[in-house]
Amino acid sequence: MLKFTTLSLIALTAATPAFAQTGDDIVVTASGIEQPRDEAGQAITIIDADTIETRQSVDVVDLLATTPGVRFSRTGSMGSVASISLRGAETTQTLVLIDGVKVNDPSGIGDGYDFGHLLTGNIDRIEVLRGSNSVVHGSQAIGGVVSLTTATPAEGFAGNASAEYGYSDTLAAKADVSGTAGRIAGGIGGAYFRTDGISSAATGTEKDGYKNFAGNARLKVAFSDALSLDLRGYYINADLDYDSFFGAPADSADVAKLDQYVGYAGLNLGLFDGRFTSRAAVTWMRNDRDYYFVRGTAPDYGYSGTNLRFEYQGVVTPVEQAKLIFGYEHERPDYDFFGFGSTDSQRANIDSVYALGIVQPFAGLSVTGGVRHDDHSQFGGATTFGANANYSPNEGATNVRASYGEGFKAPSLYQLYDAFSGNATLRPERSKSYDIGIDQSLADGRALVSLTAFLRDTTDQINYDNATFTYGNIDRTRAKGVEATLALKPVDALNVTASYSYIDARDRSGRPVFDGKRLPRRAEHAVSLSADYDWSFGLSTGATLTMVGDSFDDAANAVPLDGYALAGIRASVPVGPNFEIYGRVDNLFDADYATAFNYGTYGRAAYGGVRARF
Q1: By C-alpha distance, which of 312, 437, 317 is closest to 40?
Q2: Is 344 part of a structural domain of the chain?
Q3: Can you give the CATH number for the domain in which 315 is found?
Q4: How many domains does the chain have?
Q5: Which residues contact 445 (CB under 8 A, 6 or more apart)?
Q6: pLDDT by residue (tens digit) across 409-418?
Q7: Which H, E and C letters describe 66-128, residue by residue?
Q8: Could you count the other beta carbons within 10 Å of the beta carbon of residue 156?
Q9: pTM over cut 0.85
Q10: Which domain holds residue 526?
């Protein structure tokens, strides 16, 4: 088992985690509009395009796992169900956005998002907000928000392509082109991935293969300086062999196929020299999941989840030191099910209004506060509040942050209406989240240290009630902890980033078997350390070490999961002005570990590839 000593914790807290950030960074998850990072009082991590390329990660989960406050689990081979927990929240309590579109699946049991099919492909930026923030984002933002964006079109014309090959006959390739001509800017990209994989059953011998294609497109047309049209699209097609077992793990012939469609169409209008801006948009997401007991036959059962949304957002800036953000949203989630001789179809309507004020009463201080009300066609209304502040006494070298956020999560359509276990009287899950932190820049910006303490209480959490065989509002949970981050650039050629987080997430339901127990698959301690060096002759080398503490696989804490340490190394070298050769070795020391009980994980694996830019 992996043990964390007191000495190592003190050292990491004093000198640890994340991705390099500056006061000029722009964030969108805090208030729903672009704003300088040092205006936001919330804990936000940015994973930019350079970091994604340097790390060579194919899987978004691998990048998120190095972020403070994040815990993850995967049920086997690449493409298998992968879940993300932020600050100890349920995996269904993370809101996920792709290019501004909410992609949580209405056909899932808890409206969660399966990160298993989300590869880095043409993802250009990831923003992770930790803490409840339903004022801006509505339902599901209890643990926080993960927002992913594809690249904005380049000025002029640009193209990128890469291909790599490695362990288990794995092939990954991607390409994109973009450009701007006058008032029109656009881009299109595609990514393909295939692998023979590993056995999803930990003791299995048959490999579970996986194929994934992702495509994205953007188009922006500026009709004038004040009016523009914004179109975005994202698509994933996936095909997975997986092992389905009850009791002892075993190989099986099961197959899962996915089609995910994401669309955004919006109009942007700016008036009065930009002092009043409006955005009206329609977004659409559809998840089609089909499951087969044997490949080559008709699907045995399947789910389809759709979410159609209308959004209006207005921003008024009466003076430079104040902004008022207000909006209206209408959302219609629905799901369909077929299989085992039956079908089911359900839908709901949600109408929401919100208002948020950002005020800078004097230099260095930014205060944000807001309120939101959501009206759900089934359970009624939910009102949430939130406020945060960021104060810098020295023009951004020091930032002191504090935030209070309320979150709620609407019951899923499955939990409300399922013929066997649904409960139409369910109330929304609610949370109150507090955090306080400090960011300190040192040595003329060559070092950034960040420390955050947080607490979140969640009530009316929905869980399956074994006494009534239906879903009920039976859980209460509490999560508290500390996140520490460090970014170092002692010389121009060297970048060092690190993160440590302590999360104490426990059941507070009062039920004798579970009360006081740690929530499943949420290790208390996790550390990530990454270093990259650019040599004078063009070679770049790097390494990442991730250590995760012990946890439990079940709510009763009867099935332990041992902690583990994973190390990876990487290198790249340019070949002329437009090409680059790169390679990496994951799980360098071939560690034997598990993120979910009885499910397999990858051993040592090597990959190599080439990139081209023009």
Answers
A1: 437
A2: yes
A3: 2.40.170.20
A4: 1
A5: 22, 489
A6: 999 999 999 8
A7: CCCCEEEEECCCCCCCEEEEECCCCHHHEEEEECCEECCCCCCCCCCCCHHHCECCCEEEEEE
A8: 9
A9: yes
A10: 6-613
